[in-house]
Amino acid sequence: MIIAANFKTNHTRASAKEYISFVNEYLTKEKDVEVIIFPTATALDNYETNPNLTIGTQNAYSVNKGSFTGEIGTQQLDEFDIKTILIGHSERRHILGESQEEIAKKYAFYKELGYKIVYCIGEPLEVKEQGLEQTLEYIYDQFVGIDTNYENLILAYEPVWAIGTGVTATTEDIKSVHSVIKSKIDKPLLYGGSVKVENVAQICSLDGVDGALIGTASWVKEDFVQILENIKGL
């Protein structure tokens, strides 16, 4: 089971350090789960962590270094031995305007460097309302230019209409999409979208769900550890 925490634009360097230390202490005793934490770029650091806790970056440009104001590249990531990256998150697609072409370029760049890639896919509400066939067609378009055979790939299905809204997809919604994706791509597949303490066990127990990518509910360290407690044994 893989549980990932996406801090988005939350936490400081100090609070991220405290958070990671707290979770790492828990994982000293609980070793049957893989945890990935994506802090803000300003909180990336050389953290001492258990083997089942990985620190990743929420975003980076497809470059080692250069004249790209506001971006970070592998020169900055290498300083902290970061080798895990989140690519294709809906907020970067829909709010920050990353095109599929740009996302595919970034994917190819970090794939060539051997990074573990958590690759996000998902549909907006207007697509979901058109039915499963249209939803899957929309999702398939998000695989254009993406090598799904890459050995270090983790997928995350995040319906856009469920992210940060408090609305979680029904078990049937999740199972129907996950089952089709899993039948075509043999990679770990996480679910994301208003996953929280109360529903994480139910979601992660569904066939085709290999874990969760969690935003809001992961920002309080005690809640995140409770989430890890709740999926023990799955």
From TrEMBL:
SUPFAM superfamilies xref list: Triosephosphate isomerase (TIM)
Domain of life (superkingdom): Bacteria
GO BP annotations, alphabetical order: gluconeogenesis; glyceraldehyde-3-phosphate biosynthetic process; glycerol catabolic process; glycolytic process
Pathway membership, UniProt: Carbohydrate biosynthesis; gluconeogenesis; Carbohydrate degradation; glycolysis; D-glyceraldehyde 3-phosphate from glycerone phosphate: step 1/1
EC numbers for this chain: 5.3.1.1
Pfam families registered for this protein in UniProt: TIM (PF00121)
Compartment list: Cytoplasm
GO cellular component, one term: cytosol
PROSITE patterns, per database record: TIM_1 (PS00171), TIM_2 (PS51440)
Catalytic activity: D-glyceraldehyde 3-phosphate = dihydroxyacetone phosphate
GO MF term list: triose-phosphate isomerase activity
Major subcellular site: cytoplasm
Residues at the catalytic site: 89, 158
CDD domains assigned to the protein according to its UniProt record, in alphabetical order: TIM
Binding site for substrate: 6-8, 164, 194
Cited Gene3D superfamilies: Aldolase class I
Keywords of the record: Cytoplasm, Gluconeogenesis, Glycolysis, Isomerase
Quaternary structure and partners: Homodimer.
UniProt family annotation: Belongs to the triosephosphate isomerase family.
Functional summary from the UniProt entry: Involved in the gluconeogenesis. Catalyzes stereospecifically the conversion of dihydroxyacetone phosphate (DHAP) to D-glyceraldehyde-3-phosphate (G3P).
Protein known as: Triosephosphate isomerase
Organism in which the protein naturally occurs: Arcobacter nitrofigilis (strain ATCC 33309 / DSM 7299 / CCUG 15893 / LMG 7604 / NCTC 12251 / CI)
